[in-house]
């Protein structure tokens, strides 16, 4: 598992979880404030597309997750 794949998996999980917990129509609804988590993750992905800076990717590399798959 590489850094890029983990970033995509974790970002998708956080967005779907935030929508499940923040959307009033959801059976798992807790508070509409969870939608701010989805906004935060989306904003980070957006700025990463322009700047190449991703806090989660930096943290994963610090943990020793490989950046490229081995052939």
Protein described:
By secondary structure, the chain is mainly α. It has helices at residues 3-22, 35-51, 55-63. The chain has one domain (3-63). Helix 1 (3-22) packs antiparallel against helix 2 (35-51) and helix 1 crosses helix 3 (55-63). The chain is elongated and about 45 Å long. The protein starts with a helix and ends in an 8-residue tail after the last helix. The mean pLDDT is 94.
Helix content: 55-70%
Low-confidence stretches: none
In total, how many domains does the architecture comprise?
1
Q: What value does the average pLDDT take?
A: 94
| Main sheet overview | none
Shape: elongated
| Strand elements, count | 0
| Total of DSSP H or I helical runs spanning 4+ residues | 3
Order of helices and strands: HHH
Which structural class is indicated by helix and strand composition? Answer: mainly alpha
Radius of gyration: 14 Å
Topology at a glance:
Layout: H1 3-22, H2 35-51, H3 55-63
Helix pairs in contact: 1-2, 1-3
